Amino acid sequence: MEMAVNSVSPSEFDSSTPPESSEKNLQPFFILHKASSRSSHRRRIHLSPSKSVIKTDDLLLRMEAFQSVWSEIHSASKDVLRDINTSAFNDIYHWVRQSFHAITSYGMPGFGQATRSFPLLTHATSKQLFTGLVLTKNMEFVDDLLTFEELGLCLKSHGCHVANLSSTDFSAKNGIGGCLRSLLRQFLMVSLDAADMSILASWYREQGNYNSPLIVIVDDMERCCPSILSVFILTLSEWVVKIPIILIMGVATTLDAPRNILPSNVLQQLCPCKFVLGSPAERMDAVLEAALLRQCSMFCIGHKVAVFLRNYFLNQDGTVTSFIRALKIACAQHFYMEPLSFMAGALFEEDNQGFQGERNVLLEGMLKYASELSSPDSDTRAEQIDTTLTCRLRELKRLQKCWSSIVLCLYEAGKHKIRLLDIFCEALDPEAYNSVASDNHTGLGKGFGISTPSDPSMRQQCFTMRKGGFICQAIQKVRLLPEASLSQLLKSWENLTVDIYEIHDKVKELQSMVKLEEGRISKEDLTDICMRHASWRRLNIESSKRINEKAASLIDCMVRDFLRPIECLPFHEIGCFRNVEKLQLALIGDPRRRVQLDLLEFHKILWCSCCSRSCNIPLPSMPDTSIMYTLAQEHGDLINLPEWFQSFKTIISHISTKGKRKTKQSMLPKKTKYINESEDKSEASIQARFCRAVTELQITGLIRMPTKRRPDCVQRVAFGL
C-alpha cells in the first residue's frame, strides 16, 4: 500500500488516463481526488477576476447604481419644486407681516379680556379675517399637500406659528370640534379633548408668543364641507381681535370659488388677498429639466416611454408627484432588467468624484470580460476591444450631454409658447429620424419642397423641416424675435453650450455681431436719423432680420449635428429605459390578470424545471394555490367543494402512496397502530392545506365563498385571461 502511494505522482493524474476502478485499490482514487482539485483550482484562478466578479457582484452593483442615480434625480426634483415657489412664498410672507401689523395696530387686549370666551365690542372692520387665497390650478390635491407643507416650513423659518389643516379635518363627521382640536394640537403640541379657543389664547399670551402671527393653512377649501368651513371662519373672526390669526386657503379651480362655496355673511368676514402659483405644466417642465436634462445622470427614457408619461400626466393624473413616482419606477425597472446598467451609475459618478476603489476594478473587469467574449484567443485583440469600448462609453456620455444642451436651447427659443415636454418627446423619436433615410431612397422627401440629402448627418435637419412640429416652431420663432429678446436668448445659449466648443464659439461670435450692431446705432447722429427716419427704419429692420436668420441657422446647425435621438446612439441600452409595457403595467396595471398568470405560470417565478414540463397538468410539487386554481379551470361558474377537495387530495397524495407501498412490505404487524395515526394526521393536514388555498383564492378575488342557498359550492369570479 505504501509503495503504491510513493510510486504515483500527481503529474500522472493530470493526464487523460482513467484510474483503476478496483474496490481494493484505494490509493489511486485518493491521489486523483487531490490532483483534480488542484487543477480545478488553477482554472478558477485563471477565470478571475472578470467572470467571478460579474456573477457575484452584478446585482449589488446595479442596486448601488440605482440608489446613486435616483438620489440625485430625486434631490434635483425636490430642489427645483422648492425654488419654483420661492417668489410666491416670499410674497405670501410679506403679506403676512403686513396683515399682522394691521391686526396689532387696533391694539391688543389684556390677558383677562383675551382669554374670556365672550367676544369684545369692537368695530366691525377689526373683526375681518385676513385671508390669503392661493390658486394652485391642480385638479388633484397630491401636489397641493407638498406645496402647502413647504409653505408652512417657509413661514416657520421666519418665526411664524403655523398649523396645517387638511380638507379631511373639515368633514361633517368630525364637526367643528374636530377642526378646533386639530388646530390646538398643532399649536400647543399636546392632544386635548376640549375644543376651546380660550386655551389657544392663554397659550399665546403666557408663553411669550405674541410677537409672531398665528397662521392657519387649509390645503384645499373646495374639498371641505361648506357648513363646517363656514362655522370655522366665523369662529376665527370672533377671536382675531384677541389672537392675531391669519388664514391661508388653497383654491384649485378659480379664485371665485369662495363665492360659490361660502354664504354671504361668511364672505363679509374675510379680507382676501390673491396669490397664484405656477401651473402644473410649468412645474412639470421644471422637473423634467432638472431631473433628465441638466442633471445628466446617464439615465434617460425612450420615446415611447416619454410619450406614455406625457399622456399619463395630461389625460389621467396630472400631478407632478405621480410623474416623479413613475420616473422612479422606470429607473428601478431599468437597473433591475439591464445587466450592464451599473455602467450608467459608474459613468455618472465619474463626473462627481471619479472612479474610485472597487467600482473602478469592477468596471474594468466588466470591460475585460466583454473583450474576452469577443476575442478569447487573442490578448492584443482583447485589449483593443477594451480600449474601444471604454472610448465609446465616454462618447455616449458626451453625446447625451450635447443632446440635453440642444433640447434646452430649443426650449429657450420657444419659451412661454412651447412646452419642454413636447420638445423632449419629439427629440427622442427615432422612427421619424430614421424614416428620412428610407425617404431618400424612395423619393418621398421631394414632396415637401426640399431635397433629402444622402448624408446621415443631414437627416435631422430634414426631419424638423418636414414634420413642422415643435422643434420647427422653435426655430421659426427665432426668426421673429425682437432684438432685445434675441440678445437674452443668445446669453442663455452661451451658458448652455459651454461644453460644446464649436457651437459655443459660434454663439459668442453672433453675440459680438449683436453688440456691434447696438454700438453702431448708439453712435449714429440722431439728427440724421430723424431726417432719414423712414429709410433708417427699413435698414434697421433688414439688419435685424439678417441677425435673426443667422441665429436660426445656428440653432438649425445644432439640431443637425447634435440632436440625434438617444435610442439611435451606440450602447444606449446601458442607460435608456424603453420597455413601456412594463411601466404601463406597473402604473395602470391589471392586478387580477397578474394574479391569474402568476398562479398558472408559477414555474417562471420559482424557476421550477419539472413543473414547466407539465403542460398545465397539476403535479404534487406545485404550490397548493396553483393546484387549486388549475383544477378550477375545469369547472364552470360553480365549483362543487367535495369534488374539488377529492381532486386536490388525489394529486397531493400521489407521491405518498408510492412511498407507502414500499414500506408496507417490510412493516411489522405491531406497527399498524402508528400507520393509522399517521394516515389520520395526513388527512387532517390535507384538509388544512385545502382550506388555506381556498381562502387565498377568495382573498385575491378569484372565487366567492359559499352562500346559504348553495353551501356546498363556491362561485368563480374571474374567467379567462
Name the average pLDDT: 75
Regions with little confidence, pLDDT below 50 for 5+ residues: 1-56, 354-359, 369-378, 437-466, 521-539, 656-674
CATH superfamily of one domain: P-loop containing nucleotide triphosphate hydrolases
Q: What is the CA–CA distance across the termini?
A: 70 Å
Gyration radius from CA atoms, angstroms? 37 Å
Q: Please identify, by name, the CATH architecture of one domain.
A: 3-Layer(aba) Sandwich
Largest sheet: 5 strands, parallel
Strand content: 5-15%
Q: Tell me the structural class.
A: alpha/beta
**Overall geometry:** flat
Number of strands: 10
Proportion in helices: 55-70%
* Count of helical stretches: 33
Name of the top-level CATH class of one domain: Alpha Beta
Going across the biggest sheet, name each strand in turn: 2-3-4-1-5
What is the name of the CATH topology of one domain? Answer: Rossmann fold
Structural overview:
With 721 residues, this protein is α/β, with parallel strands linked by helices. The protein contains 33 helices and ten strands. The protein has a five-stranded parallel beta sheet, sandwiched between helices. Keywords: DNA replication, DNA-binding, Nucleus. Its main location: nucleus. One of its GO terms (biological process) is DNA replication initiation. This is Origin of replication complex subunit 3 isoform X3.
